[in-house]
Amino acid sequence: MKFTKDMAENRLKEMNMGDMPITEIKPTPTNVASDWFKSYKHLCREFMRSLTDSVEELAFMNLNQNEFMSLIMGKNVPQNISIRFRIPLIWGGKLEIDNLFMCSTFPYSQKLDQFILEQSGSDSIWLPNPVKKIYIQAHTSSGGDGGNATEDRLSQIAAQIVAAKGMEQ
User: Fold this and answer.
1) Do the Cβ atoms of 137 and 106 come closer than 8 Å?
2) Alpha-carbon span 137 to 148, nearest angstrom
3) Phi/psi zone of residue 116: left (φ > 0), alpha (ψ -120 to 50 degrees), beta?
4) Which of 43, 80, 105, 151 is the Cys-Cys partner for 59 at CB 3.0 to 4.6 Å?
């Protein structure tokens, strides 16, 4: 189905993701190198290590300390977390950190797949394009005046890791 921008935004609202920015692309069928997955896995590890600047968003993903450390050290993606392409490789997307974002697999990644599939066959597609590296629903990411102990704790851990990385170089 061909969506207009309003239709696409309304569909995302129906999916409880009305705060998700979208970008229109004209899918350009692109040949993907046969070794793309090896490069993708390496890129995902770089992306995960780059998340030390996204501690505020990570605090809302309900990760325990081990999952958090493993993630920002580029070792493992926690359960129910997906790393997604902003523009899929088969439509001209690049294997670059800026073309990736992270979100919860359930429900967001699954809903985004459905949103994209609903547009199949169109000459232009509206794709999710969150502003930050991690998509957290807007109503989830606001805290009260009392602060967020998890965010504070994770911020301290991230600062220690950044400092240690700086010392290693």
Assistant:
1) no
2) 17
3) alpha
4) 151
Joined together, the tokens standing for residue 123 give: 């000459």
Q: To which residue do tokens 């240690």 refer?
A: 164
In this structure, what DSSP letter does residue 35 have? Answer: T
**C-alpha distances in Å from residue 40, one per residue of 43, 117, 129, 144, 156:** 5, 22, 19, 38, 29
| Residue located via tokens 């999952």 | 67
Q: pLDDT in tens for each of the 169 residues of the chain?
A: 899 999 999 999 999 999 999 999 999 899 999 999 999 999 999 999 999 999 889 989 989 999 999 999 999 999 999 999 999 999 999 999 999 999 999 999 999 999 999 999 899 999 999 999 999 987 654 444 444 555 566 656 666 665 666 544 4
d(CA 44, CA 96): 9
User: Which residues of the chain form beta strands (DSSP E)?
Assistant: 22-25, 81-85, 100-104, 125-128
